[in-house]
Structure prediction request, 196 residues.
Amino acid sequence: MGAISLGGFDRAPSAPSQHRHKYRSVLLNGDRPTSVLEDGMVLTEVAPEALPKQRRRWPFYVCLALLVPVAAYVLVFKVAEWRNDENLARLEERASMLPLPPDTEPGDLGVQGTVGLQSGNSNHCDYQVRMSLLTKLPDAEIARYYESAKIEGVEGRALSGTVYVNPSGSWRDGFKGVIVEFFDGFHEAGFDMRCH
Prediction:
């Protein structure tokens, strides 16, 4: 009959012994020492590399301990920032879709926006969009144009523009630089740290 493997021991079938095992003989089975007991049990020394390796679990727990705070930070703080960035991008898009007045063209900087705490105390978000333009229109006329031009704010409120004229004088061919600013302020800050 063949031997039965029992977790590193080879045992030949026999009746179980109630007494202590006594060695009958020691054999060399290739490179592995083998002991045969009186009751027929065969003990074979197994090399450590042949034993099944137990997986170490501490790297998993260390990674988990590092990932949980990062995931919590992303969920709490970054999602609020991404939401406000999306609101700002839509406001910039609405401002850039406004038709330009006559004798006016886009400036070098185009449309730029910022979100964060820009006025007053803390705990609110302000959205500001600026457009850089070049115009030949008189100051009062371009200011009137953007005061009457309305765009939809972050929460649907109508916003008008404020015009700032470059005091350094005219540029090329009678054009002068102006900045048109749309400001939408005092929105709920949430967990966006830029608004605190």
